Amino acid sequence: MRKLLLAAALLSLTAGGASAGTYSLQSAFGKNLPILGPAADRFAAEVDTLTGGKIAFKHYGAGELSPPFEILDNVGAGAIDAGWSYAGYAAGKAPAAALFGSIPFGPDAIKYVSWVLHGGGLQLWREIYAPFNVVPMPCGVIISEAGGWYTKEIKSPEDLKGLKIRIGGLGGKVLSKLGANPMSLPAGEISTSLETGRLDATELSFPMIDRLLGLDKVAKHYYFPGWHQPSGFIELYVNKDKWNGWSDAERTAVETVCSDIDLWTIGTAVAGQQEALDAFRADGVTVERFPDSVIEALRKATAEVYAENEAADPMFRKVLESYRAFSKAYDQYQALNRL
Amino acid sequence: MRKLLLAAALLSLTAGGASAGTYSLQSAFGKNLPILGPAADRFAAEVDTLTGGKIAFKHYGAGELSPPFEILDNVGAGAIDAGWSYAGYAAGKAPAAALFGSIPFGPDAIKYVSWVLHGGGLQLWREIYAPFNVVPMPCGVIISEAGGWYTKEIKSPEDLKGLKIRIGGLGGKVLSKLGANPMSLPAGEISTSLETGRLDATELSFPMIDRLLGLDKVAKHYYFPGWHQPSGFIELYVNKDKWNGWSDAERTAVETVCSDIDLWTIGTAVAGQQEALDAFRADGVTVERFPDSVIEALRKATAEVYAENEAADPMFRKVLESYRAFSKAYDQYQALNRL
Question: Which Pfam families does the UniProt record give (chains A, B) (predicted)?
Fold first, then answer.
């Protein structure tokens, strides 16, 4: 760990920390990914404009200064100024962080943003991250992902038994309950693994991004809904000492721009999926929903995973209780207004 | 008209236009209204912070410098710098503007924002307002309204016949098709009119705001969904010459803050309705959905009203076609991902 931090610090000095007011922003995502890459560029440009160049973020693509899972520690230590990541990656260090990456069978994008910004979620998120010496906030929204790519048709919950599926986090725990074997695997190995039978299925992202990996060539069943991630956040976290050193106006600029990025990411993504789906269909892929029996089995297993996590971790329970209270009021009004 | 403009100009000079960099913002809404009032204050404060005081809006409540329906003309003439209003109020001058206030049986909040900011809606909105010498943008979102207060139970579409209902715009035209009599009436007269039988029903806003008028004392049936306004925008428009005189950074500040206000208004409103609904129920009000037969009759009548407006006004057709194209792709992905 010390070695990594040192390496990151050296890289930061040579690559990005040259002038006062220039801050390194290490992304967990590739710069070339649709939406995720441009969102970071848009963020940096708008903050630059609004602060008159006083806060100029330099956007580093995946792995340039730090591997994705080490960004949190590196930003906390001050070797990197800010991170652009996915809160699920911090779940190994703080289980409740997973709930700020996505909530399986949880909120859609707007309910998620509303709970975090208005229902007390952000305060809990900051409480979870405080020991890491960083200040987090939502700064981009990932709309509902796909449920996953399968090489075999799934007709009932029994068909999940024994399947080797690339999926992590809470979603992986849920699939275990139904007898599947969740596995970790770098994105670059997915395609070959599906072809050789090392994998039977994989979860990745939404269609626009899944398309980049050419999974339609090696798996012909593309299932929805993305029950494990009905929506997700891109998180921005800033080294706490840097954050506290900024003026009110500078912090307001960052937070206001993040609101813009939240809307921008949702809006860019919602209609952009259709073209990818059409391309998959043209390539012989079946694009469809899981059978209701599968969705219900997943929902039941998700409730079991939540109960276990709540029993094991008070913070996990506290976050989930906050979300559920917000959700209840929200759902009642939505039900009255459904068209 | 000329008299009004002059009066407004004088008021503006004495009240708000004293120092360079101070701009008058005339709201169409009362400063005391929940969400609508505070949103304008939040907007002004954030723009002030982000521009280092270079753009300081002074927020005037309903009627202080101009009556609501005259704000557009007054801002265009430069007597007032900016307006904070509802695009439906401009429909008398430009019918297609109604579609930027709300789209009956149309989008929920996030679909509406996404279409406007990413699907070409904003360009059309600016095209419609260009002859008025103002630059409009969404700057606040109104989540789904209530369907309305009724003194009588509505069991079938036939029960709407002959009812005197306070409702304007496209919603009023739709109710006419079903034999109701839509009427205009100032908000202050609604309660008494319902009590005396001059009115049988009224539409106003969502529960948090409806509560201020005490309608639960005089009408015991509160119906949903708000089919006439599944979501709506608060619009900000700025005098075009003023807008063009600002720097890129200043315009970016205003637009970025409007994104923040869009999210803030949605988030503040979504869970806040529950308390008002509970209070109504405690007061003996029946809170429920219209019967399906009524919703379907309204949907059919809405399609007829759209067809008539599209035939009469090419811009109305152009806007609706843009929305429908966006909607189609959006709905397909939503259907795949429904939980």
Answer: DctP (PF03480)
